């Protein structure tokens, strides 16, 4: 790793450039945005803004093309051949809710089983729990190994022939585990269940190729991968989407409407009722291009080295215990400190040192509690972070120990 | 625009306040109270922190107070200060103090009740106001409930 600076220069990110003292170690919550994303959205509003798919004038056609191109760019970034299998949503949460509502209500019945894992963010837990209650289906949780990996043996036992859905994360937001996605998908497929992957923490850090992952559906948020808030994607196999009824009614999702009935539009538009977040899609496409320009393999290597450095540095502090020690991890460091020091106090003291981390359950209460903690402190790294920032975190923790020593 | 210097000495910090730190490190009145006439619990569902306040109330006055808590330093420090100072308060006086603390945290023109001036250093830390108010909520619930039999 170069000592000169991160592979994504701070100068590319207006907020980081304007706040040189800020050590932003909370990218798992939301990432900072490169200037190219902000510029792309501004350019759209200033030169192409109109309602797509409507209007017989050149500007509306330009907006339609811009929106379609954004979808194609993001599809290429994800390794999807068919851009129409990408549905734009508000984010991961809406993507999973869409799938649970539209596919779930049509395909999950009383006596069926839904399996999720202990690692899940609430966004990939609660919608399935709600669906199970509504439909009278069984809701089962696959537990973890002591290191914080999904217990595949238990998953094999839980995946019974009546299982319709296996829902799991690509990467745990709470403890950083990178799941064995192809193995989990294969277990789901063996019993005819669909494999649904929450990719909110995967897409920002690594190459996502649906064929390689073997999943049936994948959800992620723009704002965690350097794009704007309010835009995200649900990708699903075309036959899955084709068989799904729309979940919302309105404009854009129909072909024709009469008093008696409406005819629904094609995939993916039938799931995009109303005027879409065009600028958001364009901003997300710009984020994908930015990540491509840095290089996805380079990002993975850089972040892997930074994670290893941070893991060594935090492990060297006797009072710090890392939570989640899976052998394959993304750049998330969840930890607790001895002497009864509360994660919120760690967060507030670090904040006074200009270091931004997260403290709490990380919207993943089932896993944090199962690992025996009321809450944890979490530092999450991205390609704009550096070893120097990790050193600052270590110095900040020394200050915490000084105060509570 | 540049960021504020994170180590600015003008930034008041509860973690540099000797009174709060002393209560956090050496909490007073922490533990169960079997003879309590009134008990109240408050929980912050966002972080799981919990405070239980136990009181002996006789003739409309707090005669003794204790707390139990699972929480951060601010929760523990404020709970400790509260039970240490509560003896002799009337029930109405306890309610008034709880309301005054809530108001003073967000409004610099409102004074903290006597004995709670150290909480001034929490004003700038808006993300932690809920921690400072948790023991007061537990107190409020204790005196809102009918006496324990």
Structure description:
- The complex is a heterodimer of chains A (405) and B (149).
- With 405 residues, chain A is an alpha/beta fold.
- Chain A has 2 domains: 10-32 and 295-399, Aspartate Aminotransferase, domain 1, CATH 3.90.1150.10; 38-292, Type I PLP-dependent aspartate aminotransferase-like (Major domain) (Aspartate Aminotransferase, domain 2, 3-Layer(aba) Sandwich), CATH 3.40.640.10.
- In chain A, 40% of the residues lie in helices and 16% in strands.
- Chain A contains 14 helices and 15 strands.
- Chain A has helices at 14-18, 35-47, 58-78, 92-107, 126-135, 152-158, 181-190, 210-213, 238-242, 278-294, 296-315, 343-352, 365-370, 387-404; strands at 23-24, 86-89, 113-117, 138-142, 163-169, 194-198, 217-221, 232-236, 254-257, 262-264, 320-323, 332-337, 355-356, 358-360, 376-380.
- A 7-stranded mixed beta sheet of chain A has the order 2-8-7-6-5-3-4, with helices on both faces. In chain A, strands 11-12-15-14 form a 4-stranded antiparallel beta sheet, covered by helices on one side.
- In chain A, strand 5, helix 7 (181-190) and strand 6 (194-198) form a beta-alpha-beta unit.
- Chain A is globular, with a radius of gyration of 22 Å.
- The mean pLDDT of chain A is 93.
- Chain B has 149 residues and is of the alpha+beta class.
- Chain B has a single domain, classed as Sufe protein. Chain: A (Alpha-Beta Complex).
- Chain B is built from 4 helices and 3 strands, in the order αβββααα.
- Chain B has helices at residues 18-25, 73-85, 91-106, 129-144, and strands at residues 38-43, 50-58, 61-70.
- In chain B, strands 1-2-3 form a 3-stranded antiparallel beta sheet.
- In chain B, helix 1 crosses helix 2 (73-85), helix 2 (73-85) crosses helix 4 and helix 3 (91-106) packs antiparallel against helix 4.
- The chains are: A alpha/beta (405), B alpha+beta (149).
- The interface between A and B is medium-sized, with 24 and 26 residues.
